[in-house]
Design a protein that fits this description.
- There is one protein chain.
- The protein is mostly beta strands.
- It is built from four helices and 52 strands.
- Its main location: membrane.
- Belongs to the TonB-dependent receptor family.
């Protein structure tokens, strides 16, 4: 039998058998190999698949192609599978693949993908683990997040997905699309991150794997207590009925008692002169003194549970149906104990300013001294957070006569439940025997530099009681506030349906065409209830004893304070005084719905140009968006603005429709010597925060405005449209194989023109036309705006953007290419530099600790990011050391009001280490033992106020030690 091959047509003995794009064939073979790499024993050899027979049916993958066996293990397995994904993609992508079943390189998805070129992560302020992902200098909201190709819900007010909700053990690979194609639905301006689970029919045989890992957290972190926990996982993959049915099941469980963390807050670097603090002069001198401090010990017990189920049915090579289910739940119990107070100034009506004495003055700075009337607040706060993810999908594919038809329905739901209790203890508001506070070592710049002592023993329950410590509820003329409680739930639901068809053609360079329709409906809402905790009896000076006997010594100050857990205290110690003022009703209670209809068409390319073989695609998406929203309007003219005195409010609705057309093109040129040049051009969009799309708000009379009395207010914008951008991407890649090990070097450049950018800005409006005025809202009685309903509204708007551009250099180098003595050693390294012309005004933005600056850089932008991983793997042994560096950037944290605030975060470098051994023969075959150390250098999480030297918070997490045993059989 004679077999002839042409470019796209195969014949047997001169007869046409089938048409096949070589690109499609290469991708199909690659998918078969990379997916099935998990199922192979480490001793397997590369073979050619045997012909199919009636007695021994040949294993096929989900594309109907023969399964091949390959020899790769451990770290190399993950690296080489990721290299193949990158090389064979028609788009510019970065990828990471599991080293084995349930073994991504890190414990969380965010930590794994933050090692890729142009990708970085913000560490969670509470846990120290990577959570939010920035790609190419843009904030997490600019990423599209998918699971098995489907858009995912998120837990916060924004759309940025918390990747620690996806246990790494339940994922097989993650691909970051930096240049999109027309078939990619749910894309973002920065990137589209597609997480993929394993598929059971991609495995050659039944495979089971189990792992158990013990961890010690907070190690080598000074005097702080350590935590401990464990992480276990189980995966079962099998095939039935002559491989027509496949089943994959997975489960993950994680618990951690939580290590102690020291948190020090320097009050934004406020170091006033005595008169600015409201204190008298010292011997006629107006010297600089510490402004105040907040020092806490925090502990965060954590739990995570996840389960996964995938069922596939393939009665023949032309039909495949897949059902996948994914469930995950994260629970954090944040317990904080600490002390806060002004030094010579005041923090409330019950806290008089102090008098400086016994001071040492150096160049106008009181480097040491004592202030009277110190009234410290002993803080015991608890924040319980539970995030629950449920995701499901049903996908069917049918092939016939060169056509491939696909139908897909899916859903994703995230529920974010939170309850926050804040309590204060100290001396009651009418106390006359106030203590003193003394300090030494003050440098005149940072409130974190001194060491403090106090005459009051804040660990003595005879001196310190639960009370309205400083009159934060308004003092005698307001309401008592011995604490605060906030309970809320945010629910995000995404449902989608998709129909598509693909057909092989021979239209010059066009090898196939694909078109389809996708409908995505999203409903997100937030419901928040808050109020003051009061001591029953209505007395502002009321107090109650602090339960228990616990004491915590706070860091930096060294002062001991009373410690207790306020859970369950509502109704036993405290009563609730509901707080229903304007920001709570309008900013924290809303609902937004979106209906996004996407019609797309794409042609796949396969041809030659100037003697160079190329592949790629071109096409576009037409998107129709209809959004509706509901919020509240508050009559601030009748608003008391304090607990127990509600602001009159009524609901308001908004609706908006708009269209977008997003063209895209990707070209991949195959150059000599296994080089690749890529070109990508596209128009992309990222949708804004759903909380910004709420209608409603509040308006009041601003009598102190510089130009005279005028109406002013704030609101969301139900007519808000997305961020939009044009993107140009270039990439050069060189691939090679040395002694069976794969490697590559690459250089990429990108340019994004942000055509529109969502800015929160003040603008002149007629409030009468917005439905924000009530009959009782007072109008200006005098001045240029007398009787006018025109005023200033601060609201999110679609404004003009700027540009962002950068370069990315990356390499994966097996050292065996230099010498056979170095076989087994390798290095994966990347470095990116990103610049932007975008500078945002701070007006209308919630930015902590701006340091007085009027503009801020693009949120999420670090100018330089570097990642490196040095590894060794041979003869069953494996070891690696990895470092991640991220430059200074503007990130975000959740503030004490449960709102996301922008904040400056200092550059950091984290170093991780792992070493282990895998048994490849004997009774222990399939067993691997791995030891890990995370955050080896105890890199802190540091926030600053505009100037990196002006530190306002410094949190250290310590090292995390782990020992894991995994067994695959």
């Amino acid at each position: 039998m004679k077999i002839l091959k042409s470019k796209r047509v195969a014949t047997v003995d001169g007869k046409l058998v089938f048409k096949l794009s070589p690109v499609a064939a290469g991708c199909a073979v690659f998918l078969a190999m990379s997916a099935n790499v998990y199922a192979q024993d480490s001793t397997a050899t590369a073979t050619t698949a045997a012909p199919q027979t009636d007695t021994a049916p040949q294993a096929l993958d989900s594309n109907g192609q023969p399964i091949a066996k390959v020899t790769v293990t451990g770290i190399r397995r993950g690296i080489e599978a990721a290299i193949s994904i990158k090389k064979n993609s028609n788009s510019i992508v970065e990828a990471i693949s599991a080293e084995d079943i349930g073994k991504l390189p890190d414990a969380t998805v965010a930590e794994s993908i933050s090692r890729l070129a142009g990708v970085t992560a913000q560490r969670n302020k509470n846990t120290g683990r990577a959570s939010d992902i920035s790609v190419r200098g843009l904030s997490p909201d600019f990423n599209g997040a998918l699971l098995n190709g489907r858009e995912q819900a998120s837990s916060g007010d924004s759309r940025g997905v918390q990747f620690d909700l996806y246990p790494a053990e339940m994922l097989g690979s993650i691909t970051i699309y930096k240049s999109p194609d027309a078939s990619l639905v749910g894309q973002g301006i920065a990137s589209t991150i597609d997480q993929r689970t394993v598929m059971p029919l991609d495995f050659a045989k039944r495979t089971m794997a189990a792992s158990y890992k013990r961890e010690k957290t907070g190690m080598h972190n000074g005097e702080q207590a350590t935590g401990s926990g464990y992480r276990s996982s189980l995966t079962y993959i099998d095939q039935f009925a002559d491989r027509t049915i496949g089943l994959a099941l997975g489960a993950v469980k994680f618990t951690d008692s939580g290590a102690e963390q020291s948190q020090m807050d320097g009050w934004g670097g406020w170091t006033p002169k005595l008169t600015d603090a409201g204190a008298p002069l010292y011997n006629g001198q107006n010297v600089i003194v510490p402004g105040g401090f907040k020092t806490d010990i925090q502990r965060i017990p954590k739990k995570q549970q996840g389960v996964m189920g995938i069922l596939q049915f393939r009665p023949n090579k032309d039909f495949l149906t897949t059902v996948d289910l994914f469930h995950s739940k994260n629970q954090d119990h944040i317990k904080l104990t600490g002390l806060e107070g002004a030094i010579c100034g005041s923090t409330g009506p019950y806290d008089p300013s102090g008098v400086l004495s016994n001071a040492t003055i150096v160049n106008g700075v009181a480097t040491a001294g004592t202030c009277s009337n110190f009234k410290g607040d002993a803080r015991n706060h608890v924040d319980d957070i539970k995030d629950t993810l449920d995701s499901w999908g049903l996908n069917s594919q049918y092939r016939n006569s060169g056509w491939t038809f696909t139908g897909d329905v899916a859903g994703s739901k995230v529920t974010h439940d939170s309850s926050r209790y804040e309590t204060t203890a100290g001396q009651p508001g009418n106390a006359t025997n106030l203590g003193t506070i003394s300090w030494t070592g003050f440098d005149g710049k940072s409130n974190l530099s001194p060491t403090y002592t106090s005459s009051i023993n804040y660990s003595d329950r005879n001196q310190v009681v639960l009370t309205d410590q400083d009159g934060w509820g308004g003092g005698l003329t307001g309401n008592p506030q011995a604490g605060y409680v906030a309970i809320g739930v945010t629910t995000d639901k995404v449902k989608s349906g998709r129909l598509s068809a693909k057909h092989d053609v021979e239209w010059g360079p066009v090898s196939s065409v694909e078109f389809g329709f996708n409908q995505t409906n999203r409903d997100k809402s937030r419901d928040q209830n808050e109020g003051n905790l009061i001591i029953p009896g209505g007395n502002p000076y009321g107090s109650a004893a602090v339960p228990g006997t616990g004491v915590v010594v706070t860091p930096q100050s060294g002062l001991p304070v009373v410690a207790w857990d306020p859970q369950g205290s509502l109704g036993t110690i405290y009563a609730l005084l509901p707080k229903v003022d304007q920001p709570i009703q309008t900013d924290k209670n809303w609902a937004v719905s979106e209906k996004v209809s996407t019609l797309y068409a794409m042609g796949n390319l396969d041809g030659e140009l100037f003697g160079l073989t190329y592949r790629g695609n071109f096409g576009g998406q037409y998107i129709r968006t209809k959004q509706s929203s509901q919020g509240f309007v508050v009559d601030t003219s009748n608003c008391a603005g304090s607990a127990g005195k509600p602001c009159p409010a009524y609901t308001i609705n908004g609706e908006h429709k708009y269209n977008d057309f997003l063209p895209s093109m990707n070209l991949v040129f195959e150059l000599p010597y296994d080089q690749v040049f890529r070109f990508g051009l596209a128009k992309t969009l990222s949708r804004g925060k759903m909380s910004d799309m709420r209608p409603g708000g509040g308006v009041s009379l601003n009598s102190s405005a510089p130009g005279g009395a005028i109406l002013s207010g704030g609101a969301g914008n139900p007519n808000l449209e997305p961020f939009r951008a044009k993107a140009l991407d270039l990439s050069w890649e060189k691939y090679f194989t040395v002694n069976g090990a794969k490697g590559y070097v690459a250089a990429a450049a990108f340019y994004k023109k942000l055509d529109t950018y969502i800015l929160t800005v003040p603008k002149v409006v007629d409030f009468a036309t917005l439905g924000l005025l009530s009959a009782k809202t007072p109008l200006p009685a005098s001045g240029p705006n007398k009787g006018s309903t025109v005023g200033i509204l601060t609201t999110p708007e679609n404004g003009t953007g700027g540009n962002i551009h950068g370069i990315e250099l990356s390499a994966s180098l097996p050292f065996g290419m230099f010498s056979s003595y170095l076989n087994g050693f390798g290095l994966a390294v990347n470095h990116s530099v990103t610049l932007s012309s975008v500078n945002l005004l701070t007006t209308g933005l919630t930015v902590e600790d701006t340091g007085g600056v009027s503009t801020i850089p693009l949120p999420g932008l670090s100018r330089q990011v570097t990642n490196a991983r040095l590894f060794y793997e041979a003869h069953g042994f494996q070891a690696s050391v990895a470092a991640r560096h991220r430059g200074n950037f503007l990130g975000s944290v959740s503030d004490f009001q449960d709102n996301e605030q922008l904040t400056f975060i200092k550059a950091s470098t984290t170093v991780d280490f792992q070493a282990g051994y895998e048994f490849s023969s004997g009774a222990l075959k399939g067993l691997s033992i791995i030891g890990t150390v995370q955050n080896w250098t105890n890199a802190p999480f540091v926030r600053y106020a505009a100037d990196p030297s002006n530190v306002v918070e410094n949190i250290k997490f310590g090292r995390v030690y782990g020992l894991q045993a995994s067994y695959k059989f």
